[in-house]
Structures are given as structure tokens and as C-alpha cells.
């Protein structure tokens, strides 16, 4: 019996040519708000660059400053609008590759450290029904707390999340595409891994 092929793509820097978190910040906030926010967050960013605090903690602090208190309906509305902006960031070669895999019957999965909400809308529009990303915490009234509801989907967490969704590893062939150190573990976990090959 022929094994199913699952193809896992990183998003930022792999499917797109730039980071969507920064692009989403610019999409949802004025230049004045961005400047004031990053000035206040400068100590966090310096500590991250120096390796004092990890990637996920710095990212969560930035996310909290800009989105804590937003209602999820407002946030998701902006995520849906943002898909048109993402289209401008997508590598044509990545789009062609995804189309080829889908036409060949492979299951295409996006595995990204980006927030799942804006990935979801772009993936739905492009025929990708499985998205694994960083989840955000929502309180009982529907407001964003600013905390992440999952681990940042980066490094080993990409393998953990993919394995949780598709646990029978021997039953499928895994191909994976990435572009950074956050994809290293996923690339090594795959039967065929491709770093910076799009």
C-alpha cells in the first residue's frame, strides 16, 4: 500500500519572502503607535538579541503590548483583511510548489511560529486546510489576554505539534521546507528535508 505524502512548509521566509508578524503589526497600527511601542519594548528586544531571553518570551511581550485587550472578533477581522497583504509577500515559486504537491495528491501542512489566526485565512484561500502555528489565549469574554495558549511553534515544537497531529510516523512520507534555525528540527525529522530550496 502506497504511503501518504505529507509536505510541511514553514511560512515566514519560506512561503513568503519576509516576516508576517512585523507586516501584521504595520497593518494594524499607525506608525506613531509602532514607534512608541518599540521604544518601550527596546529593553526586551535588546535582551533577546543578547540571548538573555528566548525567542518566545520576546515575541509574547511584543504581542501582548500591541494586542492585549482586543476582542477576538476585531482581531480575526483584521487577520482576514490581512490575507490580501500576505499575497504580496508570497514567493511565486512557493505557490507553484504547493500547487504541484496538491495536484499530486499530497497533504500540504503549514507549520509556523506565526500566529495561527492570520495563517488560517490565507491557507483556506489557497486550499491548505491544516495549519499549525502559535495559538493565542482568549479570556471568557472573548478578549485577547496577550499570552500564548500554546508554546511558540518554533524549533522542536514544530516536530512536537506535527507529531501530535500525525502520530503514526511510519505510515506516511514526510517532506519539509524551511529557511531558518527554527526549522532545523523539522527538516531533520523529515524523510526529505529542504532548507532554503524554494
UniProtKB/TrEMBL annotation:
Gene3D superfamilies: HAD superfamily/HAD-like (3.40.50.1000), SG protein - dephosphorylation function (1.20.1440.100). The chain crosses the membrane at residues 31-51. It comes from Niastella caeni. Pfam families: HAD (PF12710). The keyword Metal-binding applies. One of its GO terms (molecular function) is hydrolase activity. The keyword Endoplasmic reticulum does not apply. This is HAD-IB family hydrolase. Keywords: Hydrolase, Magnesium, Membrane, Metal-binding, Transmembrane, Transmembrane helix. The lineage of its organism: Bacteria, Pseudomonadati, Bacteroidota, Chitinophagia, Chitinophagales. It comes from the Bacteria.
Amino acid at each position: 500500500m502506497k504511503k501518504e505524502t505529507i509536505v510541511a512548509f514553514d511560512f515566514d521566509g519560506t512561503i513568503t519572502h519576509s516576516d508576517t508578524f512585523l507586516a501584521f503589526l504595520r497593518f494594524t497600527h499607525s506608525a506613531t503607535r509602532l514607534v512608541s511601542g518599540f521604544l518601550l519594548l527596546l529593553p526586551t528586544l535588546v535582551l533577546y538579541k543578547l540571548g538573555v531571553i528566548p525567542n518566545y518570551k520576546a515575541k509574547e511581550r511584543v504581542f501582548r503590548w500591541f494586542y492585549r485587550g482586543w476582542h477576538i472578533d476585531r482581531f480575526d477581522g483584521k487577520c482576514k483583511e490581512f490575507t490580501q497583504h500576505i499575497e504580496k509577500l508570497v514567493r511565486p515559486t512557493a505557490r507553484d510548489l504547493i500547487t504541484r504537491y496538491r495536484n499530486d495528491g499530497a497533504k500540504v501542512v503549514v507549520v509556523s511560529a506565526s500566529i495561527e489566526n492570520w495563517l488560517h485565512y490565507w491557507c483556506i484561500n489557497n486550499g491548505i486546510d491544516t495549519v499549525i502555528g502559535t495559538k493565542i489565549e482568549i479570556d471568557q469574554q472573548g478578549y485577547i489576554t496577550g499570552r500564548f495558549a500554546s508554546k511558540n511553534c518554533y524549533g522542536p515544537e514544530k516536530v512536537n505539534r506535527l507529531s501530535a497531529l500525525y502520530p503514526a510516523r511510519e505510515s506516511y512520507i514526510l517532506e519539509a521546507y524551511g529557511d531558518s534555525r527554527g526549522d532545523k528540527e523539522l527538516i531533520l525529522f523529515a524523510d526529505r528535508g529542504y532548507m532554503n530550496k524554494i
